[in-house]
Amino acid sequence: MGLREIESTLPPGFRFYPSDEELVCHYLQKKVMNEILTGGTLVEVDLHIHEPWELPDTARISANEWYFFSFRDRKYATGLRTNRATKTGYWKATGKDRMIYNPNSHVIVGMRKTLVFYQGRAPNGVKTSWVMHEFRLENPNAPPKEDWVLCRVFHKKKSDESYTDYSGTDVDVTDARLLFSIFCSF
């Protein structure tokens, strides 16, 4: 089923904006346990084959963020380092991992790693505006070699850049803010 076919079955105004906790506790947990995921909103993608700008066409739901399941590939057969290289660049981790808690039991159930895409090869890569949040389960009993992750990919824009809205027209963010402030003053 293609992207447009799936979107046509959704109710008007539907947006897929799950919280970090929902991504880990509902979607990723079920994927790892081989449970059936209803809705078909997430697809499996090998992030080493696709460049970030190709991912929106692969996604099931169009928005400003795209969600995928991916298998973490290890850089070395006996090592723990993850291979995050593509044909034209690589994903580089930034900052420290964020803990994801189960909303009911307040137990750590997962981690979120933030990565930025660089074009070229390290250490001379050029930073881009593509960002990925990689979610993984926090389970010390899981095999360390191969595991599923859930990825949220988005293109981070500067506040003065224009962006394309859902209708396909360019919207200047500054103009949009001005219109919003005028609208709110009535």
UniProtKB/TrEMBL annotation:
<dbReference type="InterPro" id="IPR036093">
    <property type="entry name" value="NAC_dom_sf"/>
</dbReference>
<keyword id="KW-0804">Transcription</keyword>
<keyword id="KW-0539">Nucleus</keyword>
<dbReference type="Pfam" id="PF02365">
    <property type="entry name" value="NAM"/>
</dbReference>
<dbReference type="InterPro" id="IPR003441">
    <property type="entry name" value="NAC-dom"/>
</dbReference>
<protein>
    <submittedName>
        <fullName>NAC domain-containing protein 100</fullName>
    </submittedName>
</protein>
<feature type="domain" description="NAC">
    <location>
        <begin position="10"/>
        <end position="156"/>
    </location>
</feature>
<keyword id="KW-0805">Transcription regulation</keyword>
<dbReference type="GO" id="GO:0003677">
    <property type="term" value="F:DNA binding"/>
</dbReference>
<dbReference type="GO" id="GO:0006355">
    <property type="term" value="P:regulation of DNA-templated transcription"/>
</dbReference>
<keyword id="KW-0238">DNA-binding</keyword>
